[in-house]
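[Automated response] Your request has been received and processed.

Submitted sequence:
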Amino acid sequence: MPGQILGKRYEVEKQLGRTSGRWTMLATDLQQNRPVVLKLLFIDDHLEANDLRLFKREVETLKLLNHPATSQYLDYFELDMPGDGGKALALVEGYIQGTSLDAYIQRGRVFNESEAKYILVKSLEILIYLHSQTPPIVHRDIRPSNLLLVPVSGSKEPKVHIVDFGSVKSLNNPSTTFTVLGSNSYMSPEQMGGRALAISDLYSLGATLIHGITGKSPDTLRGSGTKIKFESAIALSEDFAQWLKQLVAPSIEKRRSSA
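Generated structure:
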């Protein structure tokens, strides 16, 4: 695959990820001479209707977004794969050269309270933008691998990006149920039950930051219940600990009401 040119302009550099029927690759846009991300969805007998629906929803959502800290839509096309590889749909996004929170966690890096507050506030600013769209856009899969930290020249603080809108949903009807998507470790109780609200993203963001500051997965901090018990795992100021507790409250009535 590396070196192959898809869509007559995108030269594949390397594979970034692969799941059943779906590939993500780093490529070079030969016309613009810049790196891009190619997401391919293979059209074959194994393609599930929900996978196709989510892929097309991601395309349509990215077309609507205009925010410097989210994924950027560049192109969308259908292509014949080399050899007898069949057909695939291709989504082209801008490449963000950063490091995910997950990558830092895997290296044993934990974030102090000041760093966590900064990441949390910048992430909330992005969620305010998403949730203020008409209808509101719910990401549904905020987790450490989908938060990117991008170094900024001359600044100690990175730029924060929220990426991967493959599970996104527009809330035309807030009570609508759906197929459960996302990572269970960071998913709110109502989302596990098949219902996502804008504040479900707040829960996932809180769980993500708790992982970043404790170095422990929310699953290990839950025990046998639904409450994330992080207080004994890290020393935080009382105000910030209370803020996080409200973000990840299992009951939506006790959670923060909006970004």
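Summary generated for your ticket: The mean pLDDT is 91. The longest strand covers residues 10-19.
If you did not submit this request, please reply to this message.
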